[in-house]
Amino acid sequence: MIVLEFKLKGKAEQYRIIDDMIRTAQFVRNKTLRHWVDNQGIKLVDLYKQCAVMAKEFEWAGKLNSMARQASAERAIFAIGRFFANCQAKKPGKKGYPQFKKYTRSVEYKTSGWELSTDKRCLTFKDGFAAEKFKLIGSRDLHFYAPDEIKRIRVVRRADGYYAQFCVNVERKEEAISTGKFIGIDVGLNHFYTDSDGETVPNPRYLRKSEKALKRLHQRVSRKKKGSKNRKKAINKLGRKHLKVSRQRKDFAIKTALCVVKSNDFIAYEDLQVRNMVKNHKLAKSISDAAWSQFTQWLEYFGKVYGKTVIAVAPQYTSQNCSNCGNLVKKTLSTRTHICGCGTILERDHNAAKNILAKGLKQAKINLNTVGHTGIHAGGQTDLYLLVVTSTSKSTG
């Protein structure tokens, strides 16, 4: 499944209709959740029937396409199912009890209620709201995909406009070029990541660089009268700035992950619990700005696309153990140099990256000390790639 995104170009009245569609989808989702709360013990499948009930009870809810109402109900069903799964798994902390939504920004259609033009450059909504035709602005081409391959369309409202996301049911595969390189990655705050070869990538810190501008925009919002048009304009400018920062962060994560996957055949990284790490109020902003989770998600994705092996390893003791002799060398977070009695002196993150690589190789049952052909099961695929290992000094340290 791939997602292609286009910006919707239309008239102001059409955008107001989309806002009504989004509010209706939010109403259906909340009404479904309310029915589950009031009738504990009912089957989740029975919640789909409430979509038809709401269409008869509320005339304006019936304007939304029937499959779009079902997709909105699915959001509530998914939240309920996730809550039950967390309870059964005895997940520590909060279990994620489903909450009513107040600021929904999207509405989702399935295979009906919309139509693409012949040239696939315009999108028309054909349900009761009659939002009519929008021009699709984007660099991707939908001509490569058959209409029956598009399984869903999600309309998203952002600070800079409205977007349509096409969920296409195709499997993306790219040609894999073997490099014979094995790498371990340790993410950090001083550097975005340090690999087992000692190479570093600087941390861009997009949020930190934009803090002055964001602070100024926040002040402008606070000076405006609540409910006024000027306040709405100031809020929109603030939202656009936050949107730019998030897009910069995402673009950096994608390009960096793609570069890592293309340059190596085996990548090991730390499986960090970022949700727990951001509870440290002194480092929460910097950790969130680094976007480690987004980077590792794209690593996994590109690993499958290019047929490379990407493995997540437990982060315990990767910074404390010596990568050369394995002895435990305790150090605080402020200690940035690893000094071991065996004579090993390395930068802290470099030492951790070597340990991560060693853990990943052990987890994948790969022995680099054996020169010759080594088969790797690439990202859950059935293809085996033959890698000729001619030198192990860089990979094993």
Defining key terms:
40% helix; alpha+beta; 397 residues; disordered C terminus; 5-stranded mixed β-sheet; single chain; 7-stranded antiparallel β-sheet
Task: Summarize the topology.
Blueprint: E1 2-9, H1 12-38, H2 49-57, H3 66-88, E2 106-109, E3 114-116, E4 122-125, E5 132-137, E6 150-158, E7 161-168, E8 182-187, E9 191-195, E10 200-202, H4 206-209, H5 211-223, H6 229-263, E11 266-270, H7 274-277, H8 284-290, H9 292-305, E12 309-313, E13 337-339, E14 345-347, H10 348-364, E15 373-377, E16 384-388, H11 393-396
Parallel strand pairs: 8-11, 11-12
Antiparallel strand pairs: 1-5, 1-7, 2-6, 3-4, 4-5, 6-7, 8-9, 9-10, 13-14, 15-16
Order of helix and strand elements from N to C terminus: EHHHEEEEEEEEEHHHEHHHEEEHEEH
The counted number of beta strands is 16
Strand content: 15-25%
| Uncertain segments | 371-397
Q: In terms of structural class, how would the helical and strand content be classed? A: alpha+beta
Radius of gyration: 25 Å
Please give a structural write-up.
By secondary structure, this protein is of the alpha+beta class. 40% of the residues lie in helices and 21% in strands. The protein is built from eleven helices and 16 strands. The strands form four sheets. A seven-stranded antiparallel sheet has the order 2-6-7-1-5-4-3. Strand 8 (182-187) and strand 9 (191-195) form a beta hairpin. Helix 2 packs across helix 3 (66-88). The longest helix has 35 residues, at 229-263. The protein is globular, with a radius of gyration of 25 Å.
